[in-house]
Amino acid sequence: MNYDIFSIKNDNDFLQLCMDIFHHQAKNCKPYCEWIKLLNINIKSIKKIEEIPFLPIELFKSNKVYCCGKKEQTVFSSSSTTGAGQSFHYVADIALYEKSFTNAFCLFYGNPAGYAILGLLPSYLERTGSSLVYMVDNLIKQSNNKHSGFFLNNHDKLYKTLCELNNKKTPTILIGVTYALLDFVEKYSIDFPRLTVMETGGMKGRREEISRAKLHEILCSGFGVRYIHSEYGMTELLSQAYSKGNGEFLCPAWMKILVRDIHNPFNILVRNAGGAINIIDLANYGSCSFIATHDLGRINGSYGFEILGRLTASDIRGCNLLVQ
Q1: What is the CATH number of the domain that holds 108?
Q2: Residue 312: pLDDT band with limits 50, 70, 90
Q3: Inter-axis angle of helices 178-187 and 155-167, to 10 degrees?
Q4: 78 and 102 housed in the same domain
Q5: In Å, how far are 88, 167, 307 from 311, measured between CA atoms?
Q6: 300 domain-assigned
Q7: Same structural domain for residues 218 and 113?
Q8: pLDDT tens, 270-311?
Q9: When comparing pLDDT for 77 and 314, which is higher?
Q10: pTM
């Protein structure tokens, strides 16, 4: 099994690979196969992306979503701060994940070697199995800058490092979980216009949720930057989308967002309509590339999308039939 997802140049390339991967996973990924059977769908009838059935994301908690004939190389796991249990993503080829996040980073930001890359991800570093920590650690190593690294809860050291990088006019990216960035700017303030602050989302039960607009206003003031960037990813994906501060996320060529009707999950909505997010991640060809999430969003007139919130009471009818 070898799909050249990084050579996609247009919609036709994406469609061809998408359908090839769908048919492979519909036959070889057991939970996905069972889900399709429950829906009474004939896979031979699927001709368009909009007709593909999407696997409910919660099945990554109760099933081994995997379709490779060899043992997985690693397993990523989600946090369980919500009490809903952990998701597990079985990864057949860790080099594929590394290529996916490196190519996406280069697409949106350029070569990691051009930056000092700092990670403020305490809740992720305090446990094992985080795909985000794996990605940031790898990017830190690629940056090859002596100032790059993780800062667990050492805000004093982070502040001194930022001041030094600011004085040297070094292009710098600070990747942080939301609550930790807020904790930092409550204690420190810096005017660092060359800094890219990238929030990865999540209060992790540490702080009260606030709107993204309010969050970005606070962080812009605290770091002395015009915009706050955002990363959109999750344990169940091997690809990420990025926003450079306008609230609109863009995907790499091997990732696509669709929006489904929250009242009829099999109805894919047109652009500019709000609904629940479905994700196609072709880098997931060793697990499942077609995932129905609990995020709410909207696809804009361009290829960008916005995240509007989360579904409530989001259990999908029939999922319990696959829980073992």
Answers
A1: 3.40.50
A2: confident
A3: 80
A4: no
A5: 21, 44, 11
A6: yes
A7: yes
A8: 878 899 999 999 999 999 999 999 999 999 876 799 999 888
A9: 77
A10: 0.92
Number of structural domains, the chain? 2
For 29, 179, 244, 323, the CA distances from 36, given in Å and listed in that order, are 11, 39, 37, 15
- Interior angle at CA 189, CA 184 and CA 191, nearest 5: 130
Q: 66 by DSSP, 3-state: which?
A: coil
Lowest-confidence segment of 83-97, 156-170, 280-294 by average pLDDT: 83-97
- 174 plus 76 within the same structural domain: no
Pick the closest to residue 204 from 173, 176, 238, 236 (CA basis): 176
Establish if 243 belongs to a structural domain. Answer: no
Range of the domain at 10: 5-85+253-322
| 239 occurs within a structural domain | no
Residue 3: CB partners within 8 Å, gap ≥ 6? Answer: 17, 20, 21, 282, 285
Interior CA angle at 183 toward 181 and 185, to 5°? 70
CA 270 to chain centre: 23
**Is residue 91 domain-resident?**
no
Give mean pLDDT, residues 121-127.
82
